[in-house]
Amino acid sequence: MSANNSTRIEMYRVIVRSRHFDDRLTEQYWVDKTPIFAFGKGPLPGELHTSHGQEPVAAGLCSVLSADDFLVAAHRPHHMAIARGVDLDKMAAELFGKKAGLSGGRGGHMHVYDASVNFSSSGIIAEGMGPAAGMALARRMQGKPGIAVSVIGDAAANQGAFHEVLNLVGIYKLPMITVIEDNKWGVTTHKSASTAIERNSDRAAAYGLVGEYVAGNDADLIREACQRAVDRARNGEGGTVLEIETARLRGHFMGDPASYITGDRKDFQVDPIPLYRAKLIAEGVMSEEQAAAIEAEEKARVDKAIQFGLDAPYPAPEEALEHVFKSA
Amino acid sequence: MSNDQATSTADVPASAFDDLTQSASSRVMTCARAQREALEWEMTHDKSVFMLGEDVYGMGGVFGTADGLGAKFGKERILDTPISETGFIGMAAGAAIAGMRPVIELAYVDFIGVCYNAIVNYAAKTRYMSGGQLNVPMVLLTGTGGGYNNAAQHSQCLHATLAHMPGVKVVCPTNAYDAKGMMHQAIRDDDFVVYLMHKGAAGVGWMGPTVKTTLAEVPQNDYTVPFGKVKVYREGTDVTIVGVGLSVHHALEAAEELAKEGISAEVVDLRSLVPLDRDGIMESVSKTGRLIVADEDYMSYGVSGEVIASVVERDPTVLKAPPSRVCVPDVPIPYSRALENYVLPLTGRIADAARSFF
Predict the structure, then answer these.
(1) Which burial class, exposed, middle or buried, applies to B65 when counting CB atoms under 10 A from its CB (0-12, 13-18, 19+)?
(2) How many domains does chain B have?
(3) Among A94, A119, A137, which would you mutate to test the B interface (most chain B Cβ atoms within 10 Å of its Cβ)?
C-alpha cells in the first residue's frame, strides 16, 4: 500500500525534526567538552548516540503504528522517540538532566520513557526484546488491540536475548515485530566481522517467523514493509523480523571520529534526507517552497524544545532518592 | 540427606505433618502448598495474574506451586516456557509494564546467572529510570539453598546478590502462614518482588522429611503479611540469633539445645531482606546484647554483614561481645556430603557460636 502525499510529507517532517534535534544536541554536546574531552562535562553530559542517517527507519515504522501499540527502542533512541511523538520539550529537558524531563532527569539519553505514547528504550543490547514480547503478550491476554515493536541494531542479533525472544515470539505467535536497523556497525566492528550470515532477517526462518530485508534507507519502502509486518501481527499471523538497511553517518557515539570507516565502506554512508527531499519534489508531492517551509517550521519547533530544556531548572539533589519503589 | 540437615525439632505438634497427609480437613500445610493457595486465589480473583516458567503447566513446577493450576486456568494463564530465562523474564517484565501481574517460576536461584540483566538492569531499574511512569508489578519465585548434595551450581542462596540491587524487594518466608500471606502481598504489590523459598523449607517430597517448624495452620481466607517486619519465633534473653530462610529452623533447633544448657536464645526471622526491619533487629539485640547471624549465603559482602551494620550504626554499645557470623565460608558449595555439611550453617555451628559467648 503506497503512502498518500500527506503521509509522505509527514514522514519528511519527522525526519527533518529528528535530524535538527540531533544537530542541536551535537552543538550542545561540545559545550565545555573542549579542549579536554570528558563525557561528564557540559550541559549535555554522558554518552550520546545520535541517529544521523537512521531517521527514515523511524519515520516509516511509526507512520504505520497506532496509539495502542508499544515501541521499545534501544541505546540510539532519538529518532524513534521523535517519530513516535514523545513530548519534545520533556525529552530535551530529560537529556539536559532537568526536573521537567520525562523522568525528572533519572533516565537520560539512552533511557527515554513516555508512557503517554507507549514508548520506552533500554540501553542493554537486545535486552529490550523480551519486554516488547511481554507487552505484545499482555495486549493479547487483555483482549486489547495493539502490538509491540522492538527496535535493535544489526549487531544486537548476535546477543542471546535476540534468539531466545524470537523463539518465544515463534512458539506463542506473539504480535511482535523486531526491527533491525542495519547500519553495518557494532561500535567499531563491521557487520561482516561480527555476523556469520549477511542478513539477520534470514535468521527469522529458524524461529518460524517471516523475515524481510529492506534495502535503500528510503522511508516509502520502509513504510510499506512495516505495514506488511503490522498487518501480519494484527491479523494474528505472528511476528516478523524486519531488517532495514540504514546508515550511521556519525561515529558510534559523540567523540568517536569513525576513522575506521574507510575505503568502499564509506560508500554506504549516504545521507538519506537530500535523497528523500529530492524524490518528493520530483514526484510532485511537495514543492521546493513547501520543503523549505517544513524545514523552517521543524527547526523552530526543535529550537523551542532545546531552549526549554536548557532553561529548565535542575532537580533538587535529594530527588535522586525518589521512585525506586512505588510503595515502601 | 543427613538427619542433621533435614530434621528440625518441632515447635508445632509432632502430629502436624501426619495430619497433613491423613486429614483432608487439616489447615496445617507446607510452605509450597500455602504459596500455591495464594497464587490460586489471586488468579481466581484477578484476571491480570498469570504464571510462567519451565514445566509449570503440566508438572506444576518443581515445588508444586502450580500443581493443578494448569488444568484449572489453562495454557494461556499457566504458561510453559522454553529454557530461555533472559527471554521469558524480560517478557514477564514487559507484560507487567503493560498491565499484567506475572508470577515467574525460576526453579533455582542459581539460574539468575543467565538472566541477571533482565532482573537487575530491566525489572529493577525501569520504574526509577522512567521517573515513576512505569511500574513492574512482577513476582519472581525461586528456590534457594543446599543441603541435598547437588553441588555449587544448584545449591546457592544468593540472597545478597539480589538484595544488593536497588529496585528489588526481596522476601524469604520460612513457614506456611508467612508463605501464603507474603505471596498474596507479593502479587498485589506494585513493585518487583523476588520471593525466595529455601528448598529445604518448602516441604517438597524430593527434599526428604518436611522440617516441622515450617508447617503452620493456614487460614482459608486470603490475607497479607506485610514486608519489612521481622518475626520473633522464640523469645530469649541471652543471645539473638538472626536467621534467613532455612537457617531460621536450624537456629530454632540450636536454641532448643542451648536451652538445655541454660542459654536462652531469641530466634529472629528476617522474613524480608528488602525492606529490612533494622529496628526489629535492634530491638532484639538491645535486649540480649549478643548477636549471631545465621545465613546460608556466602559470608563476605552479604546479609550477615548488613545485619551487624544495622546494629553497630545505631548503637554499638548494646553489644556485650563482638557479633558472630555463621554463614557459608567464601567457597562454592561442595558436592560431597562431608564437605557440604562442613560449610553449611547447620545447627551445630550455630549452637557453638552461642556457646562461645559464655
Answers:
(1) buried
(2) 2
(3) A137
* CATH number, domain containing residue B343: 3.40.50.920
Please name the residue ranges forming H helices in A209-271: 219-234
pTM metric for this prediction: 0.94
SS3 B90: helix
ipTM value, please give it: 0.96
Please give the grid coordinates belonging to residue B198.
529455601
Parallel, antiparallel, or unpaired: how do β-strands B291-298 and B239-243 relate?
A: parallel
Q: Is the CB of B91 less than 8 angstroms away from the CB of A131?
A: yes
pLDDT value of residue B24: 57
Beta carbons of B95 and A134 less than 8 Å apart = yes
Residue labelled with grid coordinates 538445655: B260
Check whether B10 has a pLDDT greater than 60: no
Asked if residue B211 and residue B314 are part of one domain, the reply reads no
CA–CA gap between residue A92 and residue A106 (Å, rounded): 13
Domain co-membership, B341 together with B195? no
Q: Tell me, yes or no, whether B332 and B207 share the same domain.
A: no
Nearest residue of chain B to residue A133 (CA atoms): B91
Query: Is the Cβ pair A324, B127 closer than 8 Å?
Result: yes
Same domain, B186 and B247: no
Q: How many residues does chain B have?
A: 358
Q: What is the DSSP string of B22-75?
A: H-TT--EE-HHHHHHHHHHHHHHH-TTEEEEETT-SSS--TTSTTTTHHHHH-T
pLDDT digits (tens, 9 = 90+) for B28-63: 999 999 999 999 999 999 999 999 999 999 999 988
CATH of the domain at B81: 3.40.50.970
At A2, the pLDDT band (50, 70, 90 cuts) reads confident
Could you tell me which of B153, B86, B113, B180 has the C-alpha nearest to residue A128? Answer: B86
pLDDT at B9 over 60: no
pLDDT interval class at A134 (50, 70, 90): very high
What is the pLDDT averaged over residues A253-261?
90
Residues B45 and B177 in one domain: yes
- Host domain of residue B261: 231-355
At the fourth CATH level, the homologous superfamily of domain A5-312 is Thiamin diphosphate (ThDP)-binding fold, Pyr/PP domains (3.40.50.970)
Of A107, A141, A164, the CB nearest to B131: A107
